[in-house]
Design goal:
The chain is built from nine helices and 15 strands. By secondary structure, it is α/β, with parallel strands linked by helices. It folds into three domains: 82 residues, Orthogonal Bundle (Arc Repressor Mutant, subunit A), CATH 1.10.10.10; 103 residues, 3-Layer(aba) Sandwich (D-Maltodextrin-Binding Protein, domain 2); 107 residues, D-Maltodextrin-Binding Protein, domain 2 (3-Layer(aba) Sandwich). The longest helix is centred in the N-terminal third of the chain and has 28 residues. The model has no long low-confidence stretch (mean pLDDT 86).
Length: 298
């Protein structure tokens, strides 16, 4: 029989590509982690990892064993969770990653509601506009805008939205209201950047015709929530998902612009590793968020 701790260590090492990181996450020593992998390899009579001074990667046998190991531990965890649900409710940590603005403007009250329903669950919210590596980081679910690029991940569509240009009433009173996309060239446009790339090419559609405007402004940030706050304070024009600014528009802190034009699509997905077994608490949060976005979109 294999030790559950050894199997958990193997999965963490496979996910992180590093024995020391896996050991730290499980609060054991690197030497104990290395010994656990050796025990597994001896029991299986197969090499699970190719090791070098700079990298750690699964062998073909390791990749095969990982799939079965994921499912086996997932079933055990799920069975334990089902028993707890009957006795004391869902319990455990859920790591959720989300863009900063979406987390602040949309997710926070929904997570409050979910935690009231499941008081023994702890949500660890990773707020960042950077894309987390779900296969390396300890993230169960991630909310992401745009099309899925990694075939190892599964994406569930949450909401179809579009980018929208908007500004505060104070800014428009002082600088005037742009009526066409090209008018934005004469306005202070607030931008943010991800992956080291600044988003200064704003695309609008007039029917099927795409209009790309290269904008300029006196500030940018890698946190989209800060950019939105600058717009609310009257610093300039912002171009964001309608989800992120809906409440500000409703409260008249921001005014939608260029309403005769369509902004770029901003599809929102919830993403998770396809090979990883989702514990019951994670599946419950996934279903909860899907339901919330369905109601919000209706």
């Amino acid at each position: 029989m294999y030790s559950l701790t050894d199997l958990q260590l193997f999965l963490r090492a496979a996910d992180t590509g590093n024995f020391s990181t896996a050991a730290r996450q499980l609060q054991i020593t690197p030497a104990a982690a290395s010994a656990a992998i050796k025990r597994l390899e001896q029991a299986l009579e197969a090499r699970l990892f190719e090791r070098s001074t700079r990298s750690l990667r699964l062998t073909a046998e390791g990749a095969l064993f990982r799939d079965y190991c994921e499912r086996a531990l997932g079933i055990l965890t799920d069975g334990e969770a089902q028993i707890r649900v009957g006795r004391a409710g869902l319990a455990g940590d859920i790591h959720l990653a989300a863009p900063s603005d979406l987390a602040r403007s949309v997710l926070t009250p929904w997570l409050d509601e979910f935690l009231r329903l499941h008081p023994q669950v702890r949500v660890v919210l990773h707020v960042s506009d950077a894309l987390h590596d779900l296969l390396r980081d300890t993230v169960d679910l991630a909310l992401r805008y745009g099309e899925l690029q990694d075939s190892r991940l599964v994406a569930r569509r949450l909401c179809d939205s579009r980018q929208i240009a908007c500004a505060s009433p104070a800014y428009l009173q002082k600088h005037g209201t742009p009526l066409t996309p090209s008018d934005l060239e004469h306005h202070n446009c607030l931008s943010f950047y991800t992956g080291g790339r600044q988003n200064t090419a704003w695309t609008f559609y007039e029917g099927k015709k795409a209009i790309v405007v290269n904008v300029r402004g006196d500030r940018c940030a890698d946190d989209s929530a800060i950019v939105r706050q600058w717009a609310i304070e009257g610093a300039g024009v912002v171009y964001k998902s309608s989800l992120d600014v809906a409440h500000d528009i409703e409260q008249q802190r921001l005014v939608p612009l260029l309403e005769n034009y369509q902004g770029e699509a901003a599809l929102l997905n919830v993403v998770y590793p396809g090979a990883r077994y989702l514990p019951l608490r994670v599946r419950r949060l996934l279903d909860f968020l899907i339901g919330k976005f369905e109601v919000a979109a209706s």
